[in-house]
Design a protein that fits this description.
about 300 residues; mainly alpha; TerB-like; 2 domains; 17 helices; about 0% strand; elongated
Length: about 300
């Protein structure tokens, strides 16, 4: 039974049902809810595709009851409650260290999960209100690359009117823009920008999207010009995950290490930034380690501690 209903997927369904408990979920709230649920571990691409669609449609009382019963069944297995608590921690603490209020909410949430019933869905929703508000505030003030802005290619084409004549469908433009943001974060990580880092970024964008050199160069420059303090990395990485496959994400991880190593030193700051990006892209620890080992073997460069 546990194999039929993975715990985190079942938990996500109940959280989605709670989000719709009052019958309303605004688009910006839905995006924030997706950010929260995306933090749950052990969700496959197929799982995420299903959950993402569930967020966008109202959950009726009959469906909510089925989700609750599914989760209650899963929680009967050994150690399931402890794992559910861990998953809840990841959601509630998505945007930083815990406050006393968040810790109190977590404890209440654990009690609710232990005695879950349909009449407690409104209470579950209320317990997620603070992380939802935090997500909404960050996405509004630190997210110039939100999904709705990327889809028409506004971030690039608006700064290069009439010249971006490489035909790209919206999904390709989205990947291009988000990849540029992630790459620029690593380029800036050691607080200096080297020509070789830019060359590798341009080469990667040219190979991945078949862009002519001058256009790939322009995209990199646009990305480097952004105020990275205003980037919501959690939202950016979720959107990038949604418009790429695992092979593309692993290739991006490799190029991030190549860029970081290109100046002869892999700094701790670069390593930390790449590790954070890999985690936000739902890449596993062994993926990160394999990419790091590959980078170190190819250059024989010790990293700076």
């Amino acid at each position: 039974m546990l194999a039929d209903y993975p715990l985190n997927k079942s938990l996500a369904k109940v959280i989605i049902a709670a989000g719709w408990a009052d019958g309303k979920l605004q688009p910006e709230e839905a995006d924030c809810l997706k950010d929260l649920i995306f933090q749950l571990p052990d969700l496959s691409e197929e799982d995420w595709g299903e959950l993402k669609l569930l967020v966008d449609e109202p959950v009726c009382s009959e469906t909510a009851a089925a989700f609750i019963e599914e989760l209650r069944t899963v929680l009967k297995h050994d150690n399931s409650l402890d794992y559910a608590y861990y998953a809840l921690d990841r959601i509630v603490l998505i945007d930083g260290p815990s406050s006393e209020a968040q810790l109190a909410a977590l404890e209440t949430m654990r009690n609710v999960i232990r005695e879950l019933s349909q009449d407690k869905l409104t209470e579950v929703r209320s317990l997620f209100e603070e992380p939802m508000r935090t997500r909404k505030r960050i996405s509004e003030t630190h997210n110039p690359f939100s999904k709705q802005d990327i889809e028409p290619g506004a971030r690039i084409s608006s700064q290069w009117p009439g010249q971006f004549d490489v035909e790209l469908v919206p999904e390709e433009m989205e990947r291009l823009t988000l990849a540029g943001v992630v790459i620029s974060i690593v380029i800036h990580a050691d607080e200096r920008i080297d020509d070789e880092e830019i060359r590798l970024a341009i080469q990667y964008l040219g190979e991945e999207w078949k862009l002519p050199h001058e256009k790939a160069e322009f995209v990199v420059q646009i990305s480097l010009d952004q105020d990275l303090g205003n980037i919501d990395l959690i939202r950016a990485c979720r959107c990038l995950y949604e418009c790429t496959n695992e092979s593309q994400r692993l290739r991006l991880l490799d190029i991030l290490f190549e860029i970081a190593n290109s100046d002869g030193v892999l700094t701790q700051s670069e390593l930390d930034h790449i590790m954070g990006i890999a985690a936000h892209l739902r890449l596993e620890q062994h993926h990160f380690q394999l990419a790091l080992d590959k980078a170190m073997r190819s250059t024989n460069i010790p990293h700076e501690g």
